Design the sequence.
């Protein structure tokens, strides 16, 4: 995969044709950019932080990390099998997971996501996918391109990464000093 800056910084000359940036490139760049932020948060955490939440009734740090992992796992199953996997087990157990196990799970899921993206043509990535009724990421539309479904895995990850940044900030770990 081209690195993110390389996607947009190549120069065109008369003798060299610029390689076109593909949907695959854009998706992988979005995933890499988003994961970079999550990794920065993970680097600020210890295993003992996983059960912490700012207030009773709010999701713990482990819960938010599980939400990130489960969404990627569930979405991959849905787009490959056509059925939302309501009964599948969670990506990891929040009570026994360690940061090492969570990072490993994230790595395996992202490898599977990239493999799935790589298995598709540009045309397949643009095919419409009917959205499950409860899937809000479709922006209240009944269908959207498969590439948008995949892109929303990263959007979802970023949303919860921002929550985790807020949790850390509430504990005095100012992200402006990271």
Sequence:
């Amino acid at each position: 995969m081209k690195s993110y800056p390389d996607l947009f910084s190549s120069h065109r000359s008369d003798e060299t044709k610029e390689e076109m940036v593909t949907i695959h490139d854009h998706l992988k760049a979005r995933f890499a950019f988003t994961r970079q932020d999550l990794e920065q948060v993970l680097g600020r955490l210890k295993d003992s932080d996983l059960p912490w939440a700012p207030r009773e009734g709010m999701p713990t740090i482990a819960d938010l990390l599980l939400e990130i992992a489960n969404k990627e796992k569930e979405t991959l199953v849905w787009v490959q099998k056509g059925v939302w996997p309501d009964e599948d087990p969670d990506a990891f157990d929040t009570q026994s997971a360690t940061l090492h196990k969570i990072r490993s799970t994230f790595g395996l899921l992202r490898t599977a996501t990239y493999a799935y993206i790589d298995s598709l043509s540009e045309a397949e990535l643009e095919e419409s996918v009917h959205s499950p009724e409860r899937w809000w990421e479709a922006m209240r539309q009944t269908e959207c391109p498969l590439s948008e479904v995949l892109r929303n895995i990263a959007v979802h990850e970023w949303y919860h990464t921002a929550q985790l940044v807020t949790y850390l900030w509430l504990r005095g770990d100012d992200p402006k000093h990271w």
Q: What stands out?
A: Strands lie at 128-130, 143-145.
